[in-house]
Amino acid sequence: MPVKVNAAQLTEKWQRRLKGAIEDMRTGVQGVTEAPGAKAAAKADKWQAAIS
Predict the structure, then answer these.
(1) Verdict on whether the full-model pTM lies above 0.70
(2) HEC string of the chain?
(3) pLDDT in tens, 1-52
(4) 13 Cβ partners below 8 Å, 6+ apart?
C-alpha cells in the first residue's frame, strides 16, 4: 500500500534525493559520446518501417 504524503513532504523528499544524485547525473551526462538526437535520426527509417 502506498504511503500518503502531503505536498511539503514530497517536495522535501524530492529535493533530498536529487541532492544525493547530483554526482550520478553528472557522470551520466559526461558519459554521452554521441548526440542523442543524431543517434535517433540515424534510426528514423528503421522506426518508420517498424510502425508501418
Answers:
(1) no
(2) CCCCCCHHHHHHHHHHHHHHHHHHHHHHHHCCCCCHHHHHHHCHHHHHHHHC
(3) 788 889 999 999 999 999 999 999 999 999 999 999 999 999 999 999 999 8
(4) 5
